[in-house]
Amino acid sequence: MMNLLQKLESGERLSKQEAFSLYELDLFTLAKFADKKRRKLHGNKVFFNVNRHINPTNICADICKFCAFSAHRKNPNPYLMSHEEILKIVNESVSHGVKEIHIVSAHNATSGWQWYLEIFKKIKAAHPDLHVKAMTAAEIDFLSRHYGLSYDDVIEKMLEYGVDSMPGGGAEIFDEEVRAKICKGKVSSENWLKIHKMWHDKGKQSNATMLFGHIESRDNRIDHMLRIRDLQDETGGFNAFIPLVYQRENNYLKDVKFLGSAEILKTMAISRLVLDNVPHIKAYWATSTLNLAMIAQEFGADDLDGTIEKESIQSAAGANSANGVTLKTFCDLIKTSGFTPVERDSLYNELKIY
What is the pLDDT of residues 66-88, one digit of tens each? Predict the structure, then answer.
């Protein structure tokens, strides 16, 4: 344990075994070292962007036990937006100052691949400077399997039609035994990593997520982070890691004990310490609550995501995120917490320091 503390003090890379030992440390020891690392990278800054989430369909061919968003008997309200409806939302959001459109859909087997991909061309035609973050690795895998396209075919279409960066969704937890229980049939961990590598090899950036607080173990979380670290060593294409806190309402996972704040903050801090090569750790307020996400900025995180405007996936499972948050609320909360609010673009270029 002394060697681990010495390595944390010096900022050296942790070995696999040392990474697995981190949960044995107390919360405030982890906080001390994670905050030190965070401040070395980003000082007193807390990043956010002005963005809009759009979820164009909830009709899904996959049945993930943790999901409350997709249309099923606990959520019997299927919908599929037209491109015209999506564009209307985009136009309204741009008029409000939104700089990023974040589009993630369920896996709709009847809409056709064109519905998924051609909307990006239409958005870019209307708003050439708008950043489009879209198409999780799970969606790419679904389109590949369902429509007989290769991963490269889908990625080339994304690039051709104007997708600028990829979100990190679909990673869930990489352990395949856990995946078999919570999201059987969805993209495998190996293919999730493969797709992101292919995207990075095109010179593009993406995020990585980890869904935690359900049936996974602490060791599963560390294993997940180490696989992200390994790929990042190879490609350098991840700009942020996002530990997503599992939301427990309206789904089919049974007898899950909801995590306490201490375990969530420990996981945030450990993420910062293990992922020494990923520049940003995002405390996604839509899954952790805005207050806890703000506290996480003292436990290694440096980002809150964005204003969102409207959010459907996490709020369907009980999160208080359906209507986003205002820019003023973000800035006021960050300032009163003793940090400096920094509005960024989708690739972490600083746009305005408040």
Answer: 666 666 655 568 899 999 999 99
Contact 331, 304 (CB under 8 A): no
For the chain, the maximum distance between any two Cα atoms, rounded to a whole number of angstroms, is 60
Dist CA 211 CA 170 (whole Å)? 9
Does the pLDDT at position 155 exceed 70? yes
Nearest to 286 by CA among 262, 312, 260: 312
Helix, strand, or coil here: 313?
coil
Tokens encoding 4: 């681990």
pTM of the full predicted structure?
Answer: 0.92
pLDDT of residue 247 exceeding 90? no
pLDDT at 124 over 90: yes
Give the whole-angstrom CA distance, residue 273 versus residue 12. 10
| DSSP designation for 80 | B
Distance of CA 69 to the CA centre of its chain: 16
The answer to whether 245 and 225 have CB atoms below 8 angstroms apart is no
DSSP, res 345:
-
Give the pair of three-digit tokens for residue 295.
């506290």
Cα–Cα distance measured from residue 250 to residue 58, given in angstroms and rounded to the nearest whole number: 14
Residue 309 region, left (φ>0) first, then alpha (ψ -120 to 50), else beta? left
Does residue 205 carry a pLDDT above 80? Answer: yes
Angle at alpha carbon of residue 169, lines to 327 and 70, rounded to 5°? 95
